[in-house]
Amino acid sequence: MIPAYSDLYLSDASLALGSMLESAVYLFGMELRDFWRLFLSSHVSDDFGNGLSGTVSGKSGWELAAEILDDAGVPFRREKPKGVVGRSREFWAGWALAQYQWKTGLSFREIEAFAPLETILLLYSPYHEMSVEHLFDALDAQRIAFAAQRELDGNPIPCGADESPVSAGAPEQ
């Protein structure tokens, strides 16, 4: 799997996505779930997944959140944050999702199907203190279980760039 953008941008991208979620909640007063739905339906989600440099590295998290709210017609205070944004579990969830999206090449909507944002937040403790590879292993296991369940239900779906062993070689319907 070839990532959508160079690993040189991964740190910026992860910080931006983490700060975006944190800004939405703590600066703009949005419910995280409501904002996440806006993000998933926005061009920002697609641009991020496709590695557009202006999105993954050219904007702050605050700017990304503001763009999403603007595009959705949601009113908010346009006061830029002062100082460094904290490191909340919302920040960690965004940071971790950016890392996982880059590693797998899956879209954020594809990830949401087997690992909803609420699940990522529940994984904060203890995963935020571990290597991110441990989180990747847990998410990969969820993805494989999701694909297996879809297969059992008679509704197999591709699991993204690196096909799950569960659906690999399954007969076409």
Write the layout of secondary structure elements.
Blueprint: H1 10-27, H2 32-40, H3 43-49, H4 53-56, H5 61-72, H6 89-104, H7 108-114, H8 117-122, H9 124-127, H10 132-152
Helix pairs in contact: 1-5, 1-6
Summarize, please:
This protein is mostly helical. The chain has helices at 10-27, 32-40, 43-49, 53-56, 61-72, 89-104, 108-114, 117-122, 124-127, 132-152.
How would you describe this protein?
There is one protein chain. By secondary structure, this protein is mainly α. Mean pLDDT is 86; it is low at 161-173. The radius of gyration is 16 Å and the shape is globular. The protein has helices at residues 10-27, 32-40, 43-49, 53-56, 61-72, 89-104, 108-114, 117-122, 124-127, 132-152. Helix 1 packs across helix 5 (61-72) and helix 1 (10-27) runs antiparallel to helix 6. It has one domain.
Name the features.
globular; 0% strand
Q: In one word, what is the shape?
A: globular
Radius of gyration: 16 Å
Alpha carbon gap, first and last residue: 26 Å
Mean pLDDT: 86
What is the strand tally? 0
Main sheet summary: none
What level of helicity do the residues show?
55-70%
Number of helices: 10
Q: Which sequence of SSEs, written as H and E, runs from N to C?
A: HHHHHHHHHH
Which range does the strand content fall in?
under 5%
Class based on secondary structure composition and strand pairing = mainly alpha
Low-pLDDT stretches are 161-173
Estimate nothing, just give the exact number of structural domains.
1
